[in-house]
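ok new one. same drill as before - structure tokens go in, u give me an amino acid for every spot. 76 of them this time. try not to just spam alanines like last time pls lmao
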């Protein structure tokens, strides 16, 4: 099952409006601007979450570097 379908399904069950329902309604009525906005918002959220997870992961595990210091590998 596609993630947007699950989101829309949960929103329908709990009667809570959300982006899944908006995306589904926009796709059915072919609202290109709304679809583009939803896709852009979801992509931006995924990028932000990935950056935050990378930062947290580098703080938890000292072997992970966020950037290369020019040496190619970490000197212990």
């Amino acid at each position: 099952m596609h993630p947007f379908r699950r989101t829309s399904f949960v929103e329908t069950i709990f009667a809570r409006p959300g982006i899944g329902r908006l995306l589904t309604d926009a796709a059915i009525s072919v609202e290109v601007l709304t679809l583009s906005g939803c896709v852009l918002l979801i992509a931006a959220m995924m990028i932000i979450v990935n950056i935050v997870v990378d930062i947290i992961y580098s703080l938890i595990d000292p072997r992970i570097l966020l950037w290369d210091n020019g040496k190619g590998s970490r000197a212990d």
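Helices lie at 3-13, 19-28, 32-60. and btw Residues 32-60 form the longest helix (29 residues).
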